[in-house]
Fold this protein.
Amino acid sequence: MAATEQATKSRCALRFRFRGREVVLDRFLPRLTALDWLREEAGAKGTKEGCAEGDCGACTVVLVRLRAGKLVYEAVNACILLVGQLDGTEMITVEDLAEGDVLHPVQQAMVDHHGSQCGFCTPGIVMSLFAAYHSGAPVTHAGLCEQLAGNLCRCTGYRPILSAALETCNGTPADRFAATDKERAAALAALGDGQDLFVGDEARFFAAPASLDSLAGLYQRFPDATLVSGATDVGLWITKQLRDPARVIWLGRVAGLDAVEDQPNKPLSIGAGVTLAEVRPLLAKVHPDLDEIMRRFGSVQVRTSGTVGGNIANGSPIGDLAPALIALGGRVVLRRGDAIRRLPLEDFFIAYGKQDRAPGEFVLAVEAPRLREGQHYRAFKVSKRFDEDISAVMLGARIDVDGRRISGARLAYGGMAATPKRAANAELALAGKDLDDRASWGLALAALEKDFTPLTDMRASAAYRMKVAQSVLEKALIEVAGPNAPTRLGALHAA
Ligand SMILES: Cc1cc2nc3c(=O)[nH]c(=O)nc-3n(C[C@H](O)[C@H](O)[C@H](O)COP(=O)(O)OP(=O)(O)OC[C@H]3O[C@@H](n4cnc5c(N)ncnc54)[C@H](O)[C@@H]3O)c2cc1C
Ligand code: FES
Ligand code: FES
């Protein structure tokens, strides 16, 4: 089908809600970010640009979406969000909160508790608190620390900000947004037409197919198009590498790409479009270490936008999900046209920047087998900063035990090679070793030096990476060997 024909059968303009009205855009550059649209086209300069790479939260806005008939308020980074990704949502920015001279409760609490000094971070922090205010549950101190991990304040300090939030975010929003939820839900429902979206022409377009078949067809026709899911990676190509993707296919409206199959005794199947926030409770049921890994994955803003498919498809050697899932024996499901194939996740990563994906083929889902009796799992992420930092080294380890004998192991590392990679020599060296004979593990720790020749870069030196890789493996073995061997400051895991 020609793109022009495609266009005639699709909706040809983007539609979202902003300041109580519907915005319709039928011409925009596919690379245009929501932040640039706000500041340069809508003249809404309250939302700030700090880092332009998703780290500082100065650009935080709230997107309101209709999910299962209910409005949800989510904080996202506008700097790495494409304007096209606003389709079907309502965007709320810091200018929208006050009514005339009357500040919104979270703004007033920030004033009362002296939560702002230079004020550069404040619009973003206020929007994160606004999302917490509408989260439907009272905030806790721990929950707030997570909520604010993606909002950097360099001069006030977080104590007054936390006090402002604890005072106001009590789970019962009573602002004018809560008062108009019904009308606003109806307005959003009216935007959800289930039609394919295609803005532009064959040479330059922003498309958002609404079904898997439309996506498969469009991507086969334009295999050089840039697939965009949450844009938490792609957004940086635009803001930092100044790339200008001419053809963009956004996956955020594809019905079924976010499907989840979560049945006991069957592998957990996670659609590529499932967000990192949504996958966290599912992975937590597989093993509590995965909950902890996901808590430390980016920030609330990054996890709200970023997806499982994006994290796997980007092929990053320092992505967190790949080693975590390879250790479980995970598989990736790919689709091209009508053809679907599955392969072990480790085989998907061929070389740096090269994955086993044919032109026009996309990631449909990933599958994560459940742990069986005798299979012990551990995952460790080591990074320079606890919150919102990319791994220097990441280990996902499944250690299979028969009595006190190690019968097998799957050890998958991130940060140690050009791709996420299993430690084949260490796995071999562990087989048959005794959990009670700590000295016997030494061969496996030494074998890591045959498995990997890590790089020195800004995150870590090669020597540090090797030492950490050995240490986290030893830590995993100590934990599996005995429940009385605490190796962490946090809670102990029983499994
Ligand atoms: C501040 C910040 C912190 C971060 N922290 C972490 C972290 O702690 N751990 C970590 O691992 N990563 C981290 N990331 C990286 C990023 O958030 C993740 O890789 C995320 O999962 C990417 O998902 P996305 O949906 O945003 O992908 P996108 O940016 O939309 O896409 C990423 C790549 O995948 C391709 N793609 C997307 N979906 C598909 C599909 N279904 N089929 C085929 N190709 C597809 C795109 O074309 C692109 O090449 C961080 C990023 C930022 C900005
Ligand atoms: S400007 Fe820093 S996260 Fe967007
Ligand atoms: S008030 Fe200055 S950075 Fe937060």
